[in-house]
Amino acid sequence: MTQKLDNLQAALEAVLGGKIKRLQRELGELTITVAAADYLEVARTLRDHEALKFEQLMDLCGLDYSTYKDGQYDGPRFCVVSHLLSLTKNWRLRLKVFAPDDDLPVLASITEIWNSANWFEREAFDLYGIIFDGHLDLRRLLTDYGFIGHPFRKDFPTWGNVEMRYDEEQKRVIYQPVTIEPREIVPRVIREDNYGGLH
Question: Which run of H or of E encompasses 23?
Answer without folding.
Answer: strand 20-26
